[in-house]
Amino acid sequence: MLTFTSCANYELKKGAMEPKAIEQVLREHTGELMAIPGVVGTAIGLCNERPCIKVYVIKRTRDLDQKIPHTLEGYPVTMEESGEFQRLP
């Protein structure tokens, strides 16, 4: 027999087990990634035929290798050296 409380707890557990969409994960983490000096952009891409989060940096350094996570909420993160982005006139 389920009570309202146990049913509500089941819904919370069920929601916690479902992975977030990669778009949501990127939205939630872009601010903190962009706050890292040297990071110039983020995007969703493919890594080994699977969705991943790409972090674009001016120049790849050991410091950035340590600051940028290898995964975010289960999605792989890859760093790409892009140089500085410049606005077109």
Structural write-up:
The protein has three helices and four strands. By secondary structure, the protein is of the alpha+beta class. It has helices spanning 4-17, 22-34, 62-67; strands at residues 39-47, 50-57, 71-72, 75-81. It has a domain at 20-81: GMP Synthetase, Chain A, domain 3, CATH 3.30.300. It starts with a helix and ends in an 8-residue tail after the last strand. The model is unreliable at 1-13 (pLDDT under 50). A four-stranded mixed β-sheet has the order 1-2-4-3, covered by helices on one side. 7% of the residues are buried.
Topology readout:
Elements lengths: L3 H14 L4 H13 L4 E9 L2 E8 L4 H6 L3 E2 L2 E7 L8
Parallel strand pairs: 2-4
Antiparallel strand pairs: 1-2, 3-4
SSE string: HHEEHEE
Strand order of the largest sheet: 1-2-4-3
Please report the total strand number as a whole number: 4
Number of helices: 3
Overall geometry: globular
| Whole-number mean pLDDT | 84
The CA-CA distance between the termini, in Å, is 67 Å
Largest sheet composition: 4 strands, mixed
Question: What's the architecture of the domain at 20-81 in CATH terms?
Answer: 2-Layer Sandwich
Strand content: 25-35%
Helix content: 25-40%
